[in-house]
Amino acid sequence: MIREVEILVAGGGPAGLCAAAAAASLGAKVLLCERSDVPGGQLVKQTHKFFGSEKQYAGDRGIHIGRTLADAAVNHPNIEILTDAAVLGIYEDGVVTVLYKNQHLKIRPKRTIVATGAAEKFLAFPNNDLPGIYGAGAVQTLMNVHGVKPAERVLMVGAGNIGLIVSYQLLQAGVEVAGVIEAAPRIGGYLVHASKLRRAGVPIRTGYTIKEAYGNGKLEGAVICRLDENWKPVPGTEEDIRCDTICLAVGLTPLAELCWQAGCQMAFIRELSGHVPVVDGNLETSIPGLYAAGDISGIEEASAAMVEGRLAGYAAAGSLGYEPQKAGELRQGAAEELAELRSGPAGARIMAGLEKAAALLAARKGGAGPC
Ligand SMILES: Cc1cc2nc3c(=O)[nH]c(=O)nc-3n(C[C@H](O)[C@H](O)[C@H](O)COP(=O)(O)OP(=O)(O)OC[C@H]3O[C@@H](n4cnc5c(N)ncnc54)[C@H](O)[C@@H]3O)c2cc1C
Fold first, then answer.
1. Which ligand 1 atom is at minimum distance from the Cα of 296?
2. Is the same domain home to 265 and 324?
3. Using CA atoms, how far apart are residues 32 and 7, in angstroms rounded to an integer?
4. Which residue puts its alpha carbon closest to atom 15 of ligand 1?
5. Are residues 167 and 263 in the same domain?
6. What pTM does this model have?
7. 184 and 286 in a common domain
8. Residue 176's beta-bridge partner residues?
9. Do 127 and 192 fall into the same domain?
10. Same structural domain for residues 69 and 132?
């Protein structure tokens, strides 16, 4: 049996939860499917206080923001949330398949918003398959969701925000952080996070990479080395770092498989961190009625993911005839909020990526550029 729904949201992170709440606030009926056992996305493990503007809960801890968004969605009469519900495929006849608690559901939504977030990137080096080598997000989940001390002594690879924040959280969990290494010539994350680590005595070395890991059956250490200005290892600069865990915090990439499979126009845009669906000003993909919001359409921050989710939710509900004028005004408000969020130096990379996407979109249909 195929279940008919008005709006299906795939993914219950900040983008998906905000999309559902926005569409429901205009009267649309929403079904949200989240593959994990709790909604909240990345926020469920983020115990630190967020930066940004008050409108996006700055100053609050990610975990609290996630709960606030999830509670609002759970308690809304127009929203139904299925957890343990992985969206598997979006097909040409409009049917979406979902694996829900071992059952195979078939759903035919009038509109679909894909908000599946991102996946961690990995790094190629000898012995990178030894037990003890993790993505930083996995380590953060072990510590902050499951209460497991993940290591005794860690080498962190990557000094972006994730590497810096997870290093500090490792210290808080009683783990020794042997050091943070970063291949780029400068620290990529906020300096306030780097300063906290340095004050705690953790060395952060830029222009360094991991040459190899070693260990007998499990990780026992890593060899690191300096990189020259052409990112080539400098012979003779190798150092041995004893550690039982290596954490890789080398970036995220959009989790866009559903959009690939649905046949959306996709593009590799470096500034958006990988292959993304090309969307218009309503965050609608090249497939009418299929929207993409949050990290799936470019790795950014939870603040932008929330606003993108709202924008897509208003656009989808408005297109179904729910208060179209109000939906248009709210959609415009969200677009302005996004422009403000991206107006600082940190938004320059995203803006450059969106310009490339806008050119592709214009070539496709000569329509409005992405917001
Ligand atoms: C360590 C760390 C620190 C951060 N700090 C900050 C910060 O200080 N400020 C800030 O603004 N941002 C921060 N961020 C970034 C922020 O968490 C993300 O940008 C944000 O969570 C993206 O939201 P999203 O909804 O697009 O994706 P996600 O939060 O990743 O949510 C996607 C959801 O979709 C689900 N999903 C995936 N595939 C499927 C499927 N097929 N079917 C059903 N469900 C699916 C996933 O389980 C997940 O729940 C941080 C991120 C990390 C990792």
1. 26
2. yes
3. 8
4. 301
5. no
6. 0.94
7. no
8. 153
9. yes
10. no
Q: Do 308 and 301 meet the contact criterion of CB atoms below 8 Å apart? A: no
Give the integer Cα–Cα distance in Å for 294 and 117. Answer: 6
Residue 239 structural domain = 122-248
Whether 273 and 338 share a structural domain? yes
Q: Which atom of ligand 1 is nearest to the CA of 299?
A: 19
The Cα 286–Cα 226 span in angstroms is 44
Q: Which of 36, 46, 134 to mutate to test the pocket of ligand 1 (most atoms within 8 A of CB)?
A: 46
The answer to whether residue 210 sits within a structural domain is yes
Pair (103, 143) in one structural domain? no
Residues touching ligand 1 (Cβ under 6 Å) are 10-16, 33-36, 41-43, 46, 50-52, 86-87, 115-118, 137, 140, 161-162, 165-166, 255, 294-295, 300-303, 305
Q: Which of 34, 38, 42 for mutating ligand 1's site (highest number of atoms within 8 Å of CB)? A: 42
Q: What is the pLDDT along the chain (371 residues), one digit of tens a residue?
A: 999 999 999 999 999 999 999 999 999 999 999 999 999 999 999 988 887 666 777 788 999 999 999 999 999 999 999 999 999 999 999 999 999 988 999 999 999 999 999 999 999 999 999 999 999 999 999 999 999 999 999 999 999 999 999 999 999 999 999 999 999 999 999 999 999 999 999 999 999 999 999 999 999 999 999 999 999 999 999 999 999 999 999 999 999 999 999 999 999 999 999 999 999 999 999 999 999 999 999 999 999 999 999 999 999 999 999 999 999 999 999 999 999 999 988 789 999 999 999 899 888 766 544 44
Query: Helix, strand or coil for residue 42?
Result: helix
Q: Which residues pair with 290 in a beta bridge?
A: 112
Place of tokens 């080096």: 125
- At 209, which amino acid appears? T
Pocket probe for ligand 1: among 301, 307, 338, the residue whose CB has the most ligand atoms within 8 Å is: 301
Per residue in 242-255, is it b (16+ CB within 10 Å) or e — as a string? ebbbbbbbbbbbbb
